[in-house]
Amino acid sequence: MPYCRSIRTAVAAGSSLIAIGLASPSTIAQDGFTNFSGNLTDIVSSLYGGDGITLRGSEVFSHAAHFTNGSLEQFNNLSLSVRDLSFPVLNPHIGVQFKYDAVLDEFVPTSDAFSASAFAFDAETVGDGEFHLGLAYSVRNFNELSGNPLSDITVDLRHMDLGDDGSDFPCLGGPVGACYAFEKDVIRLSIDLSIREEMFAATGAYGLSDKFDVSFFLPLLRTEMSVSSVATVVENPTRQFSPDSLHLFGGDSDDPVDALQATKTGIGDTVLRLSYSIGEPQEKGWNVNVGADARLPTGQVNNLQGLPRIGVRPRLIASRNIDVIGGIFRPHLNVAYGFNAGLNAEQIFDYAIGGSYAFNWSEAQNTVAVSVDFLGKHVTHNKDQMGDNQFDVSLGLKMRLLQSLNVYYNILLPLNKSGLRPAAQHVFGFQMQF
Q: Distance between CA 390 and CA 419 in Å, rounded?
């Protein structure tokens, strides 16, 4: 089946990362799912005990019919595709800002009303001695793989080769061409897979000078994964030459229905960022900024919360401020190239094109900013034909109320169906100035 083949292609590339084994000790949950205590990347292959499915034979011809789980083992890295090109690093300038006041000898809060995008960056640095701090909450539910729903996955388990016959399948009931090639029967699994990720993130930036700043992105992730499967026997057409079915559920066979679930919480990959502004800031012209992100592998790969190896992503940013209809329009362009940006040391080219518009009201005490950004990612090295080209659009809203409360919301929507994608990614944040 094309869909199953595409999944197997996607997951086979990283199979060396996972140790395949039996299901870990587990307990039965109230909703019918078994609580799985192993790594999230092992949950699918651990269906039915992790050792395939054994059926009972017929009364006429009894044998221990075993269908191997080789196809399920290839699913070990399917869920890892959630982290294939890393989590988007949030813009630290969207948060509340603190500037050191030499007179008060303390950091005092300020606010940049113009940055409304959580996924794209502006070229302006934070300024000498200024400190920006933000907290954000994000949630995304992964529901499709290359446009196919994760709730409707089909996998076929093959019969164990009896006597190492290879391609010469044993036959029952008559001469060759008129007998039941029972080893060609398969067990078809109808799988419903669910992956949900919640993120609490701290972002911050500090200005070492008017042109040079450093920033960080530190996520705390809660990842939920569940998988249920219903198994049915699909008999080979040569079954017509046998009076009885040879492969049956019931008795001492495995149960045709199995369901596992697990939740893991942990620190994700930490990102450190250096940023330098080229030339003098210009109120009327374009500001240009160069920098680089360093992703530290602090998250657990086997629980979908990180990527292996240190990743580096040089970045170029350009933006400017334009007076428009009583407000400020800030267009921006981001271009970056990442190394070790995925499970298999992918290299990716990514970019963002868009801008924010901000205006004041109520005697300039309150500010509203909106943003629209188009984002693209293209794998240029170590392609696997799954998620190599992805396009998204981000819509953002930020409000400063009564000069003390900042709230913002961003939504990231996929524009194509490449790879394992959520229907939408939501980001919420707020800051209170004291």
A: 8
Query: Is 50 exceeded by the pLDDT of residue 371?
Result: yes
Across-strand partners of 357?
329, 370
Q: What is the pLDDT of residues 221-239, one digit of tens each?
A: 999 999 999 999 999 999 8
Mean pLDDT of 385-389: 78
Count CA within 13 A, CB hemisphere, residue 226: 15
State how far the Cα of 103 lies from the Cα of 175, in Å rounded to an integer: 99
Query: What is the rounded CA–CA span in Å between residue 221 and residue 198?
Result: 6
Among 21, 144, 128, CA closest to 72: 21
Cα–Cα distance for residue pair 414/394, rounded to 1 Å:
9
DSSP state of 255: P
Which candidate, 334, 220, 331, 315, places its Cα nearest to that of 273? 315
CATH code 2.40.160.40 region(s) in the chain: 86-146+195-224+263-432
Specify the CATH number of the domain 86-146+195-224+263-432. 2.40.160.40
284, 265, 271, 171: which is closest to 225 by C-alpha? 265
pLDDT per residue as tens digits for the range 153-207: 888 888 887 665 555 667 887 787 889 888 889 999 999 999 999 999 888 888 8
> What's the CA gap between 232 and 248, in Å, rounded?
9
Residue 149 half-sphere exposure toward CB, CA atoms < 13 A: 5
- Please check whether residue 212 is in contact with residue 125, taking contact to mean a CB–CB distance below 8 angstroms: yes
**Phi, psi angle pair for 7, to nearest 5°:** -65, -45
User: What is the C-alpha separation between 138 and 411, in angstroms, rounded?
Assistant: 9
- In 3D space, the residue among 424, 427, 365 whose CA is nearest the CA of residue 396 turns out to be 427
Structure tokens at 348: 């990716």
End-to-end CA distance of the chain: 60
